[in-house]
Amino acid sequence: MTQELTSPSPAPRAPSAGRDPRWWRDAVIYQVYVRSFADSDGDGIGDLRGARERLPYLKELGVDAVWLTPFYASPQADGGYDVADYRAVDPLFGTLDDAAALLRRAHELDLRVIVDIVPNHTSDRHPWFLDPELARQRYVFRPGRGPGGELPPNDWESVFGGPAWTRTGRGDWYLHLFAPEQPDLNWDDPEVHAEFEAILRFWLDLGVDGFRVDVAHGMIKAPGLPDIGHGRQAQLIGTQVLPFFDQDGVHAIHRAWRRLLDGYTEAHGTPVIGVAEAWAPTPERLALYVRPDELHQAFNFQFLNAPWQAGALRTVIDASLAATASVGAPTTWVLSNHDVVRHTTRLGGGLARARAATLLMLALPGSAYLYQGEELGLPEVTDLPDEVRQDPAFFRGRRPGAAAGPAAADGGGDTSGQEGFRDGCRVPLPWSGERPPYGFGPGGSWLPQPADWRALTVAVQTGDPGSTLELYRTALALRRRLPGLGDGPMSWESAPEGVLAFRRPGVLCTVNTLDRPLTLPAPGTVLLASAPVTVGGAGAVLPGDSCTWWAI
Asked: Would the pLDDT of 117 be above 50?
């Protein structure tokens, strides 16, 4: 049921006076995973009002924009990425008035707001899918193979594990590259195109500043839906072009959306943007999503997946910058999000390495995305009880009767899909207090928070110059103040093995990726360091797993 506003007008757009109209080229954008950010009503689930009340914190942090994960009407089979109504707010998260109020408050604080759009699939509770005849026009249905059509139409596997097809009571099969509750749309149907353009207009009229396009690589499937020929297909995503992902036909959709976005930009004088969540096998293919007539940004997952080694990082950085420069786009850097292990844990070097990686990312040319809680140095929660987990891949990855947890490691589960442990990066934020829910809300929290997070709350870290929160605040303030950071030129400097050194206008960045200290000639005055740097007559001692910004 599409909702209507009861407030009198949509939110005015963020002011642009005195700011580069191409703000997105070097913006720092903060991802709010809505259900885990702040809870206003005590049900243990974050909501839009809670997010609105915490916006001043994000302003003080120093970010330019906020990306909100889906808050649309949804059965929540996949954390809201199974949308039943794209024009309604799920009661879990509030109302359409709450969304409008959040937009107004963000714009008062000069924060832009990007919302998720999910075009590859809907919920199986969407009105289109509930109508048997309409469903077979607007979703991907096929007859089965084998005697009586008892076998799936092809060998495609779900990203969440198991077959990507489910048989209906009529005997035919529908495609779901994710959960069975998320049927894939048929983008060969013009009505699908028209509906999504109308959805974009609806939210733009309400005042949003852009869209993060979920599975931007997925809407078009190869003609004939050919077999892939082997299993464990989820492991191939981002490594090669697949018949269900990164097909060239998706770019026509993005070009149409760019025309729509540009129309709003011209009408309001402030750019509204599109951001691709696109898994592509090479930086060159990823750059296709940000050509001048397509989307504005695309997440750089090659950088996210790079190991903490100087040579590997430099290779990814060079390839990424070259690919985006070839189409005149900025590179968009990211280290963590709601689908991957937090980089404090993933990089293997604990908090020191995570802090260094963040300063490296924020010194690179282009835009950067932060995931909620990384500014607190939150680690992945790896010991959640099975009974509280909600990631659909966790359940799809287990055969009936198989051992709980990471059973696939010993053959106890279906290894075709994701591991199913994304809940560990989605545990609600700790704001204050000595015990859970640490100020998350007046009730509990939908996932349990570790006891040792009492030392990581916003309240504890605020004002502590050695805290990760104050490191982020200082880095973002410097990035905003120093014209040499953000979008612009970069050049590499010579450095010992295991060290990266690059120059930005007025700034030199050094990164020691080794686990031991190194002494180098001091190139200038320390602006900011992820760990204490000792400067003396013998030079500068760079701690292991550290990053330093120097004024030159």
From this structure: yes
β-strand partners of 258? none
Give me the residues paired with residue 175 across strands: 165
What span, in angstroms and rounded, lies between the C-alpha atoms of 332 and 330?
Answer: 6
Query: In a 10 Å sphere around its CB, with 0-12 CB exposed, 13-18 middle and 19+ buried, how is residue 248 labelled?
Result: exposed
**Alpha carbon distance 450, 435 (integer Å):** 9
Q: Are 380 and 342 in contact (CB under 8 A)?
A: yes
- Give per-residue pLDDT as tens, 358-367: 999 999 999 9
Global pTM reads 0.93
Confidence band for 17, pLDDT divided at 50, 70 and 90: very low
Within a 13 Å sphere around the CA of 348, how many CA atoms are in the beta-carbon half? Answer: 8
Return the HEC string of 263-276: HHHHHHCCCCEEEE
d(CA 192, CA 291) in angstroms, rounded, equals 24
What number is the average pLDDT over the span 298-320?
Answer: 96
Catalytic residue annotation: 214, 277
Are 485 and 362 in contact, with CB atoms under 8 Å apart? yes
Residue indicated by tokens 């709010």: 32
Tokens 């994304």 sit at which residue? Answer: 422
* Inter-axis angle of helices 190-206 and 96-108, nearest 10: 50
Mean predicted lDDT score pLDDT of the chain:
92
